[in-house]
Amino acid sequence: GVQLNKQRHRERFLSDAEFARLGDALAEAEHNGVNASAIAILRLLILTGARRNEISGLKWDWVDFERAALRLPDSKTGARTIPLGAPALEVLAIVERKPDSDWVFPASRGEGHFDGLPRIWQKIVKAAKLEDVRIHDLRHSFASTSVASGSSLYIVGKILGHTQSRTTERYSHLGADPVLAVADSTSRKIAE
Length: 192
Hints:
Layout: H1 16-31, H2 36-48, H3 52-56, E1 63-64, E2 69-72, E3 80-83, H4 86-93, H5 117-127, H6 137-148, H7 153-160, H8 165-171, H9 176-191
Antiparallel strand pairs: 1-2, 2-3
Helix pairs in contact: 1-2, 2-4, 2-6, 6-7, 7-8
């Protein structure tokens, strides 16, 4: 007899203009001395489509520069490999390695990894003038950008670590421009 809440599927992903404003806000925050770990984590989330904890909880042993990948022994869907494009590798290459820590992004105080991202994210979002954007929406944005660029749902699902294609379908929202372009080219072909 328990009534469940209706699942609300979010279709929030960043446009090219929003990505540009976010990039500018990150550069400005970096220039103003905002925590370097937070800036690097956010850049990696944007460039990989990874989950927040997969990046913030990253250990150096899992980073494979030679094969351009993160090799996670455990994640939400079990062990997985996250491929890294050149821009993501560049972000990791400049992260200062702390000799007394296995974490790529160690906590500022105490043990464990950096965990102060939500507070900094809110400041970055405000500076970028973005509305209703969660950290997780960066994952949706990565998927949407990939699909809009012509990548298959299967490949995008592999990158994101999805075990079911239905999950990838929910993540890969298409903006009006790519959808309109396909509708236009298809109708032109039929009209010919």
